[in-house]
């Protein structure tokens, strides 16, 4: 039996209005936006759609339904996370920025052993293949983040909002 389990159940600890989970299998079965999840004693915030603001609108990705719970795939065995997102319009000029924001949020939030793939939902964007290629090319992501204007936009989108 794994540490953090009781009779095969994952340990779940209430912390305010958030839950913290103590194992990968709890992560796999419970990855939901809006939850704070602890992996390997490392607090990890998976509330990405609530925390990421749209670059053009005063709404979060959650409010715009750009990311949904069922668009998250976590493969613990191969240490991979796949997020599929859907821009609000087929010709969204900010699709690459939105994907970059999601990628940066995950890179900052989850253990480095996970490979993060970000993709547009099939058929959801006019330049889907090009955007997917940019978002999953390590060198292009690094180059984008070295651009001070792009980095400023990403940081603004990731900045916490206090209500």
UniProtKB/TrEMBL annotation:
<keyword id="KW-0159">Chromosome partition</keyword>
<dbReference type="GO" id="GO:0140535">
    <property type="term" value="C:intracellular protein-containing complex"/>
</dbReference>
<dbReference type="InterPro" id="IPR039796">
    <property type="entry name" value="MIP18"/>
</dbReference>
<dbReference type="InterPro" id="IPR002744">
    <property type="entry name" value="MIP18-like"/>
</dbReference>
<dbReference type="GO" id="GO:0051604">
    <property type="term" value="P:protein maturation"/>
</dbReference>
<dbReference type="GO" id="GO:1990229">
    <property type="term" value="C:iron-sulfur cluster assembly complex"/>
</dbReference>
<dbReference type="InterPro" id="IPR034904">
    <property type="entry name" value="FSCA_dom_sf"/>
</dbReference>
<comment type="similarity">
    <text>Belongs to the MIP18 family.</text>
</comment>
<feature type="domain" description="MIP18 family-like">
    <location>
        <begin position="50"/>
        <end position="112"/>
    </location>
</feature>
<dbReference type="GO" id="GO:0007059">
    <property type="term" value="P:chromosome segregation"/>
</dbReference>
<dbReference type="Pfam" id="PF01883">
    <property type="entry name" value="FeS_assembly_P"/>
</dbReference>
<protein>
    <recommendedName>
        <fullName>MIP18 family-like domain-containing protein</fullName>
    </recommendedName>
</protein>
